[in-house]
Amino acid sequence: MVQYTVNISEDKKYLVADLKQCRQHLDRLLLVRSLKSSSSEIAKLTLERESLNENMNKILIKWKEEWKIILSFIPDFMTKILEILESNSNGIINVEDVIFGMTMEFIRCVTLCISPKRIGRYWPTDVKWLPRIVEWLEQCLSLDKCSNWSNLYVLALWLSSAVRTPFDLNRFDHEIVKSNDGTQNHTMQHRIDYAIRSIVTDHSLLPVVHLLAGGFYSRPDIIRTSSRLEQFVGLLLQKLQNQSTVYEQVCCLRIFATLMKVVDRETIHSLVEQIMEPMFDLVKSEHELIAKLSIKILGRSALTRIRPRLFKWRYSCGTRIISTPKSSELKEIGRSSLYSSNEFNIDQADDNEEEEFDIEDLPTNFETVIQIFLHHLNHQSSIVRFSIAKYLASICSRLPYNFSEEILTYIIEDLCSEAQDDTAWHGACLALAEFVRRGYVRIDRMKQIVDVVQRALFYEHIKGSFSLGTHVRDSAAYICWSMARAYDPRLIGQFVVSHLAPLLICVVCFDRQLNCRRAASAVIQELSGRTQRFPNWIDVISRTEFHDLSLLEHTYLELGVHFATYDEFRSSIIQHLCVNKIIYWDPTIRRLAAKTLGLICGKLNFSISNSEDALKLLELALGPDLNGRHGSIQAIAHLIKYDNKLDPTDVKIESIIQELTVRNLFVGIGGDLMRESCMLLMKEYFRRQKQLPNSSLEYKTTWINLMLNTLTTETAFVQDQIIETVPAFIEITFNDASTCEPFLKTLVSIIENQCVQYHSISNICRSLMKLNLKTLSFEWLKRFVEAISNFINKVFDNPLRNSETVADAISTMVRLIDFNSELWSLDLFQILIRCLDDHTITNKGDVGLFVRIAAIKSIDPIDNGLLSKLDSHSLLRIIQLITSEAVFHRKKSFALSIEKLNLISKWKNLPNDVLPADIIQILNNFGSIETCSNDMDEGWDKNVEQYKQLLKLFSCDRLTYNLWPGIVCVMQDPGFQSSIKLIIRYLCELKPLEREQVLKTFLQFFRDHSKDIRLSIPCLISAKQLLLQVPTTVEFQLEIAELSWMTCHGSLNPKKYIFAIDVFCSLIPLETEKKNQNLNNSFRYLYVLLGHRFPRVRSYTATELFTSLLSIDDADHMESLFEVTEILQQTDWLNLEDSKQSRVRISNLIKSMSV
To answer: Taken in order 500, 502, 506, 509, is the CA torsion positive or negative?
Structure first.
C-alpha cells in the first residue's frame, strides 16, 4: 500500500486517517471485482452501497475548503480506479454493475471536493479509454437518468478530457454511418455528438456538459470535416427560442459561453451575430445566473469581433513603462521626468492609432453592447456587475484612447454622482478597478479616480432600519489595491501621501464592517510595500494585521487613538470622527467615536475647544437631528473628562439640559438615548468640577427631576449611566443639605414605596454600590438599610417579584453593614440567611440563583464588618449554606462558592469552635487547586478535584446534613453523570460505620423534606440510586421504603408515585437474612398502588414489579413466581375492577411464598 507522506500541519494530521478510509474503500471494490465468484460479496456491497457512498461523500466534502491538500492523493486514487475498471473477469463492464456505480460515485465526490476543472489533469492520457467511455456513456443514456446521473456526470466529465486527444477521431471508427441526406457520418464523431445533444439541457450535469461540448466542438477535425458546430449552435438557439425552462436556458448559455472561449476566433466569427441576437433580451432577465451568462456571451462576442491591439500610449502607464535609458549614469532628474511626464507624444500617438484602427472592424451592434454594459452596471446582482466590469475593461483594451476615454468619462461623471444609488456606485467602482488593474488609465486622469475613491470609501446610504454601502467601500479599496499593483510607485506616490493614506487609516480604524476594515488593511500593505511612501508604514502594518481588526472597540479605542499621534493622520481622524461618526446612525458607533475623540485629546494633550469642530458639537447638541444630539453630547462629555484644556463652565451644561427638557426631548422615540447622553454629561461634569454650577434653583430642580425620572428606566444602557451619575451627584452635594437631603429622602421613599417598578429600586441599589459611603451620615445609612431590609421582607415571598432586584438589594444591604458594623442586627442576619437559601423556582427557571449568588458575593472575609459581628453558630450556618450551594453544582455559583469557602477558612478571625481543624484544612486545599471553570458545558473534568474535596466534608458532622440538598439535586440530574459517579464511588469507599452514619443523615434529611415540593422527588431518585449502587443495611432499606411511601401517599403528582415505585421495586432483589423480606415489605405498598385510581400508576407498578420478580432466584417458590408474572402480564391494568381482582390473587401468592 502506498504510504502517505504529505507534509501537513499538526492540526490536520487526521486528514491521513480520512483518506486512508477512501483508499480502503477502493481496495475493497478492487478485491470484490477481482473475485470470480463473489455473488455474496456483491450482495453485501449492494446493501451497504448507500451508507458507503454517504461516508465517502462526507469525508471528501469536509476537505473542500482545503482542496490543495487532497491533490497529492488524487494520482493514487486514480490508479486504483483504473485498476477497478480494467479488472473485470469477462472484459465487459455493465454500467448497472454496483461496483461500477460506486466507483463513479467516488469520482464524483472527488470532483465536488476539488472542482470538475481541476480533476482534468489526472485523467489517463491513453487513447484506449476513449471508446470505452463513449460506450459506457451510451449505456447510461439508454437507462433511467435519475438512477444513473452520477455515472453520466463522471463519464461526461471524463469524456471532456479524453476528447481532447491530438489524434483524429476518425481513427477510432469501425464503420461509417450514413445520414438521411446521404452524407457519411464517422461513427465516433456521431456517437459523441449524439451523446452531447442528449444531455445538453440536463441541469444536473450543468457543471460538466459545457466542458464536454467545448472540448468536442473546438476540435480542428470537427470544424474542418463537418458542420456539427453550426448545427449544435442552431440547436441551442432553437431551445432558447422555444420558451425553455430556466434550467435549460442556463445550460444553453453556459455552453455558449464556453464555446465563445475555446473555439477559434476565426471559426466562431461567422456565428457571433446569431448568438448575440437572443442575448439582448436575456440580459434583462431577473434570474441572476441568466443575466450573468448573457453578459459574458455578449462580452466574448464583442471581443471576437475586435482584433487585439496594444496601443503605444499604454507603454507609458502602469507596469508597462519601458525605461529607454539603460545607463547607470542616468541623472535623477532625467529619471524623474521620464516617470512623471506622460504628455510627450500622446497626441501624436493618438493620431497614429486612429490611422491604424479601422472603425469598420467594430461589429454592427457594438454600440448597443456598450450601452447595455453601461446601463447594467447598476444591476441588482453583484456578480452581474462584476462581469460587466471585467468585460468593459477587456473591450476597452482593444479600443483607441478616445473611445475608451468616453466610456471612462461616463463612468466617472454619470455613475459616480450623488443621484445614483449604491448599485451604480458599486458597478462604477468595480469597472474603475478593472481599468486601473490593467493599467488603462493615464496618470493625468488618476486625480479623478482618486476623487471617486475619496467619496466611495465612506459611502453609506440609510434605507429603513439598515444601511447600504458596504460593497461600495469594499470596491473602493479594490481600486486602491489595483492602483498599487499596476502602476509604478513613482507615479502614484504623490496620491498615497496626500490623499489615500489618511483616508485608508480612517477606514481601517472606524469602518463599521469588518470586511471593509480588512480590505483597507490589505491596501495599506500593498501601497506600503510597493511605494514605501505610506507614512509610518512599518508601525501601521504591524498594528493592522488580519486578526487585529476583529474587534470594533479595539480599532476605535486603541488603533484610532494611537494613529492620531502621527501628524499625518491626526487632523483627518478628528475631522472624520466629528463630521461622520458623531452623527452616525448606529448608537454604538456614536458612543465609540465620542470616547475615541476624548481619548485622543487626553492622550495627546490636544484640545479642540477653540476649533470649529467644538463649535459644531455645541450646535449639534441642540440641533433637530436625534443622532447628532446623542453623539455630540456624548462627545462633549468625554471631552470634559479627558481634555484638560477645556473649561467645563464654557460648555453651559445647565442650558443644554434645560433646553432639552423644555423641548420635551427626554420622552418618546429617542428619549432613552438622550437620557443616556445627558446622564453621561452630568456625571463627567460632576466628577471634573466637584461642585454644581452657579445656576438658579430652577436648573437644579430640573437636574434632580431628570435623574429621578431616569431611575425608572429599564433600558440597560441608560441604567449603566444613571447608576454612576447618582453617586457623583451625591458626592458633590453632600455638604449642601438643601440639595442633597431632599434627593436622598426621595430615594428612600422610592425603596419604601412598593408601588413603583422593581428596576427603580434596582437602579438605586446599584447606585449605592458605587457610592463613596463616607459621604453619607450614619442616620442616612441606617435609613437606607432599614428601607432595603423592609423591601426584601415584603417582596421575598411574592411570586411576581423580580429576583434580580432582590439580588441588588441584598448586595447593597451587606455592603452598607460592612461599611458600618453598628448597623448590624439579628433581623438583618435572618434576611441574609433567607437569601443564601433562596431556591425560588418559577416558569423562568431557578430565579433564586440570582439571589443566592448575590448573597454569596457580598460575604467578604477581608472586608469583615459583617462577619465580625457573627457568633460561631451564625458563622457555621453561613458556611453550611455556602457548602450546600457548592455541592449543588450550578453553573454560575460553583466556582464562587468554592472561592468563598477557601477565603473563610483562611480568615484570621475565624473562631476555632466553628469547624474542626481537618475540615479547615480541606477548605484550605481549594486554594491549591486550579480555579474551576464556571462554564459547565465544557465538561466536568476541570472540576473533578474540587468536587472530590467537597465530598470529604461528609466527614464533618456539622456539614453532612447540609451537603445532602445539593447531592440529591445532582443525583437526579442526568447531565451530571460524572459527578454522580464520584458521589457513589466516595460512599462505596467509606468504612461501613462511616457510611452508615452518612446514610443515616440522608434518612433524616429525607424525612424532613418528604413533603417538600422541590426536594421530595430528588430524594426518591437518590434513594433508588443508593439502593442499587451503595451497600446498605436492612434497617436502611426498611426505612427508605417507609419514607418513600410517606412522600407519595396522598399526593396528586403522578411523578412521585412513579419514582416511589422505582424505590419499592429496587428493594425486591436485595438480599436479606430473612428470605423474601424486602419482597413482602415492598409489596405492602405496591398492593395499594396496583389498585390506584391513576391508570398510569397501576400499569407502571405492574411493569416494574414484573421486571423485579424476574431477578429473584428462589428455587422453592418458582411456580408461585411464575404464576405471579403470568397474572401481571395477562391483566388489563387500565381496567380498575380487573386490577383489584388481580392484585388480590398476587397478594395471596406472595403471602404463600413467605410461609
So the answer is: positive
Tell me if 218 sits within 8 A of 259, measured CB to CB: yes
CA angle 221, 225, 230 (to 5 degrees): 95
- Residue 865 to residue 820: CA distance in whole angstroms: 7
pLDDT (tens digit per residue) in 367-424: 899 999 999 999 999 999 999 999 999 998 888 878 888 999 999 999 998 889 999 9
Backbone angles phi, psi at 647, to 5 degrees: -85, 115
186, 187, 189, 191 alpha-carbon torsion, rounded to 10°: 150
Print burial letters for 638-650: b (CB count within 10 Å at least 16), e (below 16): bbbbbbeebebee
Which 3-state string (H, E, C) describes 818-833? HHCHHHCCHHHHHHHH
The answer for residues whose C-beta is within 8 angstroms of residue 73's C-beta and 6 or more apart is 4, 6, 19, 22
Other C-beta atoms closer than 10 Å to the C-beta of 1042 total 17
pTM for the whole structure: 0.81
Residues 6+ apart with CB under 8 A from 793: 831
Q: Which residues contact 288 (CB under 8 A, 6 or more apart)?
A: 381, 383, 384
Q: Which three cell numbers stand for residue 51?
A: 451508507
734 within 8 A of 775, measured Cβ to Cβ = yes
Please name the residues in contact with 1052: beta carbons below 8 A apart, sequence gap of 6 or more: none
- The answer for residues whose C-beta is within 8 angstroms of residue 391's C-beta and 6 or more apart is 295, 296, 298, 299, 300, 302, 303, 373
Q: Return phi, psi of residue 362, to 5°.
A: -75, 145
**What is the spatial distance between Cα 923 and Cα 956, in angstroms, rounded to a whole number?**
12
Task: In whole angstroms, give the CA distance from residue 449 to residue 642.
Answer: 39
CA distance 860 to 180: 101
Burial class of residue 37 in the structure, from the number of CB atoms within 10 Å of its CB (0-12 exposed, 13-18 middle, 19+ buried): exposed
Maximum C-alpha span of the chain: 127
